[in-house]
Specification:
Elements (H helix, E strand, L loop, with lengths): L1 H19 L5 H19 L4 H5 L5 H8 L2 H7 L11 H11 L20 E3 L14 E4 L8 E4 L1 E3 L9 H14 L2 E3 L7 H5 L3 E6 L15 H8 L4 E7 L11 E2 L6 H7 L7 E2 L10 H14 L5 E5 L4 H14 L5 E5 L10 H6 L4 H14 L7 E5 L5 H9 L4 E4 L1 H6 L22 H4 L4 H25 L13 E6 L2 E4 H4 L7 H4 L3 H9 L6
Parallel strand pairs: 4-13, 5-6, 6-7, 7-10, 10-11, 11-12, 12-13
Antiparallel strand pairs: 1-14, 2-3, 8-9, 14-15
Helix pairs in contact: 1-2, 6-18, 7-18, 11-12, 12-14, 15-18
């Protein structure tokens, strides 16, 4: 805004000089007037949030993006591409959000002979792509209000971490595409409820939105809000990938009156989620609490989310399910590669299992304990493209959630200013001036288009693999290069347990953890 003001003042000064000094000043005046008009256009347009917040100056970013890759590396810092995704994936997400086919001529530039390269197995007999996107019925035997989950949904992101406009755009996009939005642990806000999208209400250790004055769980408030028609599922958050084993932090500068009201906390105070839950301390108590949540929610699908750390501890939860006869309707596995704008770097880099190992561990444990058929598994962490969805389904998931890719769809530039309240595009800020730059109508359409195109891509890939239903996918269809001359399928790379084997004769590789797992102790 300051640059536009200076340019406008310069144009006015140049016009004065035209009259007072020389007509030659028309060259400068014309250029400055043109820039002023362009700046006003930047302020008025609704497509680019960056230009609305930074007229004229924001165009430098688009110039950098237009540079050839070999030149860009000398102009733009290497960290610009960010840890989450490289420019290639972001470009595809942006293109799909805009409704543009992201096609590249002359094939891939990926090194297919590099260790770790993965690919999917096409079929010599492909099948037709289904006209309607597949959905997954979520709801076990104790659920009375099952929900049909899309293959790709909005992962957990709270109001407070995200702006009101970002939350509303994601919610309206979910309504347009008939997929679900996870609220994150920050409570149910009016912006989650205003757009008409389906909600997965997440309850974290702070019990925001159903919290007593002392910070405990308020059963009556929970039941009242869980009964809302927009709430389709409720989820208990144990941990998330970027912050496994610790509580989240919302800086006090972001806690305005609306956020304080949604979270039942004081305005202006830094909000710290405890690292553990107050309402349970053992696996047995946890599954009982899940049963209570489902009862309070009127039988709606109830589950929990975690970033897997200890296999023994998860097996203890499985034993508690067996002992109590209680199972959740779904489990969301969040990989340690999952992101957060406020995660301590050492936590993000060093704690928790990556999604592949965590997902396979949970799937195997449930299969081995004879519980897999009673619940669905969601996968969250660095899911952005159709191939990501297919790989996660083949590794044991039933559906997927995406966070950062959805933020790309609403205009995130990975500026890494999430914790400063100075997000340049109005996504992760509570500054009213910056938030207003994010046009909800435009961004909700982008979210819808991105999700639709990505699920369509996953459906096309499955059809090319000869798969008619996602349930037909398996680890034998995903391959990884382990060295320059060796390629192995996931069926060979990992051990896959037979149904109920842990209850009969656990294999040697699982025997010690299964024996040590205690339903009365984490």
């Amino acid at each position: 805004m300051l640059l536009l003001l200076l340019v406008a003042l310069g144009a006015a000064g140049a016009l004065v000089l035209v009259r007072a000094v020389s007509p030659w000043w028309w060259f400068g005046a014309g250029l400055l007037l043109a820039l002023s008009v362009l700046g006003v256009w930047d302020l008025a347009q609704r497509r680019h949030s960056l230009l609305r917040n930074y007229p004229l100056l924001g165009r430098l970013r688009f110039l950098m993006e237009a540079l050839p890759p070999e030149l860009r590396q000398y102009v733009v810092k290497r960290s610009y591409d960010g840890r989450p995704y490289g420019r290639e994936v972001r470009s595809i997400v942006y293109a799909r959000a805009k409704g543009v086919e992201a096609e590249e001529p002359f094939g891939t530039e990926r090194d297919m002979y590099q260790d770790g390269y993965e690919f999917l197995q096409p079929s010599m007999l492909p099948v037709e792509v289904p006209r309607e996107p597949p959905v997954v019925r979520v709801g076990g035997p104790d659920c009375t209000q099952p929900y049909d989950m899309a293959l790709l949904n909005v992962s957990a992101m709270s109001f407070g971490a995200l702006s009101s406009h970002a939350i509303l755009a994601l919610n309206r996009g979910a309504a347009l595409g008939r997929f679900a939005q996870d609220t994150g642990e920050g409570g149910l806000s009016e912006y989650h409820l205003r757009g008409g999208g389906d909600l997965i209400w997440e309850i974290g250790t702070g019990y925001f939105g159903c919290r007593t004055p002392q910070g405990g769980f308020d059963a009556r408030e929970f039941a009242d809000k869980a009964a809302l028609p927009e709430v389709k599922c409720v989820s208990l958050k144990l941990s998330q990938g970027a912050e496994a084993g610790t509580g989240a932090v919302l800086p006090g500068a972001k806690v305005n009156a609306e956020i304080a009201r949604a979270r039942d906390v004081p305005q202006g105070s830094t909000v710290i989620s405890p690292p553990y839950h107050q309402v349970f301390s053992t696996p047995r108590e946890m599954v009982r609490f899940l049963a209570r949540m489902r009862e309070l929610a009127g039988g709606k699908p109830t589950g929990f989310k975690l970033c897997v750390g200890s296999r023994r501890q998860f097996l203890a939860v499985c034993k508690a399910m067996l002992a109590e006869g209680v199972t959740p309707d779904f489990i969301v596995v969040d990989g340690s590669e999952g992101g957060s704008g406020a995660a301590p770097l050492e936590f993000a880099d060093n704690l928790g299992m990556p999604l592949t190992e965590g997902l396979i561990t949970v799937h195997n444990a449930l299969v081995g304990a004879g519980l897999r058929g009673r619940m669905r598994i969601g996968a969250s962490g660095k899911v952005a493209l159709g191939a990501d969805i297919v790989k996660r389904l083949a590794q044991g998931a039933d559906y997927t959630n995406a966070a950062r890719a959805m933020l790309f769809a609403v205009g995130c530039l990975q500026a890494r200013r999430c914790h400063t309240n100075r997000c340049p595009v109005g996504v992760t800020t509570q500054d009213p001036r910056r938030v207003r730059a994010l046009d909800v109508a435009d961004k909700s359409e982008r979210v819808h288009r991105y999700q639709r195109a990505t699920v369509r891509s996953a459906s096309r890939i499955m059809a090319a693999m000869g798969v008619r239903d996602p349930g037909e996918l398996g680890p034998h269809q995903v391959f990884r290069r382990t060295d320059p001359t060796t390629v192995r399928s996931y069926a060979e790379l990992y051990e896959w347990l037979a149904p109920g084997v842990l209850l009969q004769e656990p294999p040697d590789s699982w025997d010690m953890d299964w024996a040590a797992a205690d339903p009365d102790s984490f």
